[in-house]
Design goal:
- The complex is a heterodimer of chains A (472) and B (439).
- Chain A is built from eleven helices and 21 strands.
- In chain A, helix 1 packs antiparallel against helix 2, helix 9 crosses helix 10 and helix 10 packs antiparallel against helix 11.
- The longest helix of chain A is centred in the C-terminal third of the chain and has 17 residues.
- The termini of chain A are far apart.
- With 439 residues, chain B is of the alpha/beta class.
- Chain B has one domain.
- Chain B is built from seven helices and 21 strands.
- In chain B, the strands form two sheets. In chain B, strands 1, 4, 5, 7, 8, 10, 12, 14, 16, 18 and 20 form an eleven-stranded mixed β-sheet that branches. Chain B has a ten-stranded mixed β-sheet with strand order 3-2-6-9-11-13-15-17-19-21, covered by helices on one side.
- The longest helix of chain B is centred in the last third of the chain and has 22 residues.
- Chain B is globular.
- Chain B starts with 24 loop residues before the first helix and ends with a helix.
- The chains are: A alpha/beta (472), B alpha/beta (439).
- At the A-B interface, strand 20 and strand 21 of A face strand 20 and strand 21 of B.
- Strand 21 of chain A pairs antiparallel with strand 21 of chain B.
Chain lengths: 472, 439
């Protein structure tokens, strides 16, 4: 039984799944704004090794020197005032609230989604954690026996530098973009996973039961390494809305699939609608390896996220399955990057977006096949569904193919829920909202099936919820 | 061979154009303003999304100068080589932005169909409200300004209400390949229910660097039909840009077609503004770059009114180390419900070194919209090749047939048979040259 709502969970040391020790509570605060001092402060608090301190400082310089990417991205980025944020929070500064302070609509959503009582308080930020020990201790035992490392990233870099260091920051270089540089300067939290050769992790790993509030951190940093022939599925986030007060989130996720390995990374993002969610996610797939991103974005004010796969070894495979739902006040700017760097590599992108009310969803894609290769294939499909007359959707793919030994195809379509379908269902006694959500669920059904069971059930309920009040 | 002129100490980038005298005041004023705009605008840089995968630096402003008058031999050579349609309602030949020939025997008398300068003098009031009134939105604002600063040749066509011009109007634009630059203009104004077909040819006299910086303004009023084709066959060292904007009103129909066959670097920007219910725009293109040729295509299908329709089909067959860039955008304004918009770009890569870049885009702000875009890139299908070879057709001929079949999908949508035959013949000529060198 683990239950310590008052403790500073950011600094809980996790030896392995479900086995926790609680350090003394700290009241660290890095103050507002971002400077070299902030970075030093974070290093001190986290007792970073010297190479990490250098890494952070260099990243800060790069962050400061890079302009906002507004020449292609939305102008909404300009409303981010970097000086107003706290870049490191610990116990003393953690927002505390009682259940009564949680907004009614959030409570209602919990109710509708059927979130267990204990999880509700946790998700709403009332309680720091909930008891997962009982449910997941079996998983923990199996993982231990297989030699799987599953810890938070701070612990990863302290305890396993020989595995951590060679890949950290290699898939996504600090200078990749402004926000990856920001993350590199101030990261805390996130997961580090190493799956040994040939190990197939049967149960999906979830930050959820790593019990560590850092999983929801602002600047989480995740590194997953699947050694030769291994398989792992990682799940991030959950369908329940997360009630957030810090409004800038910028994560970096790096995946490394060694020869013949398979990594699936599942995200369900449902931040509250004041959050800027600017994420960089990329995986490297070596020979015969496969990296799959299964991504669902429902919440946040602005999400910019383009999961990528670098197919570095022969016959490597990359896949992005993406669902985005943008309601009024939201902009889901998502997409995929497929970089083919070896022969006979194949990639597949399937993206479906739904715009409701004044919501805006955007697909941006990049497919790159250089000329010295042969036998590369890409398939990209993006479909958009517009619910209301002022909903908006954009598609901006870029496909670059060199040489005559490859095949790429890209297709996109924009459509509405057909009036005929709605009429048919209403005739059979469904309300307009019910008919609508049935239709929308049908639109994304084949993608929802890619998610683990409990996620897909919750996703369906969530879409029902979002569809309410969008018609009529 | 025509004698070459010594390039004077001037360049497009630095030397202000010297406009002919006696032009209307409003025009010289606009041209001067355009020159200032050109000078004040920076050359689009590599970060400019409108120039992604391409480079505005490929338009060599410093080493070119505005074309000087050609000599008589050159004029005769251009005139003689201006072979196009068998029958045309009117035919104009320009060399270095000067009129060489004007035949206008088959025109209904109400219509205005004049070389640029003549029209400016006689019909300035008609031209002023239409001439380059739509902004160059796809990245070439600077080059549009350069055009307006220099323009003095091309076709001004004004077809009044209900007038149907049966035969097409054909215009040849020649430029001498001695660092000369021409700026041909095409203005087509179709009154209500009028109908007209125009084809522009862009060609080079000699082998050497030169530039054709063309702009086309097309206004199709309610119920009218305009078919506008352009066939770019500039020389191997030439640079070309062609910026075309069509405004399509209620129930009007515009079909634009382009064949990109020549030039070292060719940039086209093709815009359709669909402004009325029932408006319809077809945008078609074929390109067949060889050697190091670069074809850079940008398109915009802008739906500003409900119940409008647009369909774009661009096909590129690439050879050698050539490159193509296709960037297309469909925008559907708020309130432009019941829009149908389609966009397809297909690339057939015939060599291991060719490169095709496509960026098909959509921006939808309306409801009850049917939109799709598709883009494919791939080699000649081995199965198709096998089928033909199994019937005794040699490899080279089989490949040629497949490429022709591939391009035919676009050509067949050009609903004017003689025009289609002419362009097919130009493509056939280039393909034959290619197959000879390949054997």
């Amino acid at each position: 039984m683990v239950n310590a709502p008052e403790s500073d969970i950011a600094d809980i040391k996790v030896d392995s799944i479900g086995d926790f020790t609680f350090p003394e509570r700290n009241t660290f605060d890095a103050g507002r704004g971002l400077s070299a001092k902030t970075v030093d402060y974070i290093c001190d608090v986290k007792q970073d090794p010297e190479w990490i301190r250098e890494f952070r400082h260099k990243a800060l310089e790069i962050f400061n020197s890079k302009p906002m990417p507004t020449h292609w991205a939305t102008k909404d980025l300009e409303s981010i005032h970097f000086d107003e944020f706290r870049y490191y929070l610990s116990d003393g500064q953690k927002p505390k609230r009682s259940w009564d302070e949680v907004p009614d609509d959030v409570k209602k959503t919990f109710e509708r989604l059927g979130i267990p009582e204990q999880e509700r308080k946790f998700l709403a930020g009332v309680e720091a954690q909930y008891d997962s020990e009982a449910a997941y201790s079996n998983v923990k035992k199996v993982l231990e026996d297989q030699g799987v490392i599953f810890v938070n990233s701070t612990e990863g870099l302290h305890k396993y530098p020989e595995i951590f260091k060679p890949w950290f920051g290699k898939v996504i270089p600090t200078a990749d973009n402004k926000f990856s540089a920001l993350n590199s300067a101030v990261f805390s939290g996130g997961s580090f996973i190493y799956v040994p050769k040939g190990v197939k992790v049967s149960h999906p790993l979830q930050a959820y039961f790593r019990i560590n509030s850092e999983q929801f951190g602002q600047f989480e940093r995740t590194l997953i390494i699947a050694d030769e022939g291994s398989e792992v599925m990682y799940m991030e986030g959950c369908t329940a809305p997360k009630f957030e007060t810090s409004t800038l989130h910028s994560a970096v996720v790096e995946l490394v699939a060694m020869k013949g390995a398979k990594i699936q990374y599942v995200t369900v993002q449902n931040w509250s609608s004041n959050v800027f969610n600017l994420v960089t996610k990329r995986g490297i797939a070596h020979e015969d390896a496969e990296v799959r991103w299964i991504d669902c974005n429902i919440g946040s004010r602005l999400t910019m996220k383009y999961p990528g796969v670098i197919m570095k070894g022969r016959r490597a495979r990359g896949e992005v399955i993406s669902i985005a739902l943008a309601n009024t006040g939201q902009h889901q700017d998502t997409g995929a990057k497929m970089i083919h760097l070896a022969d006979e590599t194949t990639s597949n992108v399937i993206s479906k977006s739904i715009s409701i009310g004044e919501g805006r969803s955007t697909y941006r894609g990049q497919v790159h096949i250089p000329k010295h290769l042969k036998g590369c294939k890409n398939n990209t499909e993006c479909d958009a569904l517009l619910i209301n007359s002022n909903s908006r959707t954009d598609t901006y793919p870029a496909i670059s193919v060199k040489g005559n030994q490859h095949a790429t195809q890209h297709e996109a379509s924009v459509s509405q829920v057909s009036e005929e379908q709605i009429f048919y269902m209403r005739q059979r006694g469904l309300t307009e909202a019910e008919a609508m959500s049935l239709s929308v669920n049908g639109f994304i059904n084949d993608l929802v099936r890619e998610f683990p069971m409990e996620y897909s059930v919750e996703l369906k309920r969530l879409i029902d919820l979002e569809m309410e009040g969008s018609v009529g | 061979m025509p004698e070459t002129l010594t390039p004077p100490e001037s360049s497009l980038a630095q030397t202000a154009p010297a406009p002919p005298s006696g032009l209307p005041f409003w025009f010289t004023e606009r041209a001067t303003a355009a020159w200032h705009t050109f000078q004040s605008l920076p050359t689009p840089g590599p970060k400019d999304e409108n120039w992604r995968y391409s480079s505005a630096g490929r338009i060599p402003l410093d080493s070119l100068h505005a074309a000087l008058p050609a000599n008589e031999q050159q004029e005769a050579a251009a005139d003689e080589a201006s072979i196009g349609l068998q029958e045309a309602a009117a035919r104009f030949v320009f060399l270095n932005d000067r009129l060489v020939r004007a035949d206008r025997h088959g025109l209904p008398f109400q219509i205005v169909c004049e070389p640029f300068l003549d029209a400016l003098e006689k019909h300035g009031d008609l031209i002023s409200p239409v001439l380059m009134q739509q902004p160059a939105e796809l990245g070439s604002e600077k080059f549009a300004a350069l055009h307006l600063a220099h323009v003095k040749a091309g076709l001004i066509l004004w077809v009044p209400k209900d007038v149907v011009v049966e035969q097409p109007i054909e215009v040849f634009h020649w430029v001498t390949a001695d660092h000369s630059a021409i700026f041909p203009h095409t203005l087509i104004f179709a009154g209500e229910n009028a109908s007209v077909t125009v084809i522009d040819h862009y060609r080079t006299l000699g082998d050497g660097p030169c530039l054709s910086g063309a702009v086309a303004d097309i206004v199709a009023n309610a119920g009218s039909r305009v078919t506008y084709a352009h066939c770019q066959e500039l020389g191997e060292q030439a640079t070309g840009y062609h910026l075309s904007t069509a405004t399509v009103e209620k129930d009007a129909r515009v079909l634009s077609f382009q064949a990109q066959l020549g030039a070292a670097f060719s940039r086209t920007e093709n815009i359709s503004h669909l402004r009325g219910a029932g408006s319809h725009s077809d945008m078609l293109s074929v390109a067949m770059p060889i050697g190091n040729q670069i074809v850079d295509q940008r398109t915009l299908q802008h739906h500003a009114a409900p119940h409008s329709f647009s369909d774009l089909l661009y096909k590129n067959a690439l050879y050698d180390t050539s490159r193509t860039v296709f960037s297309g955008l469909i925008t559907v304004d708020e309130g432009a419900h019941y829009t149908d918009a389609y966009q397809t770009c297909r690339n057939l890569l015939n060599s291991a070194e060719a490169e095709a870049n496509s960026m098909p885009g959509l921006e939808i702000n309306a409801d009850q919209v049917k939109c799709s875009h598709g883009s494919t890139s791939g080699p000649v299908s081995e199965e198709e090749l096998f089928y033909l070879k199994a019937r005794g057709i040699p490899d080279a001929a089989a490949r040629k047939l497949i490429v022709q079949g591939f391009l035919e999908g676009t050509l067949s949508r050009l609903d004017h048979a003689p025009l289609r035959a002419l362009i097919e013949q130009r493509i056939e000529e280039k393909l034959s040259r290619l197959c000879v060198t390949a054997d």
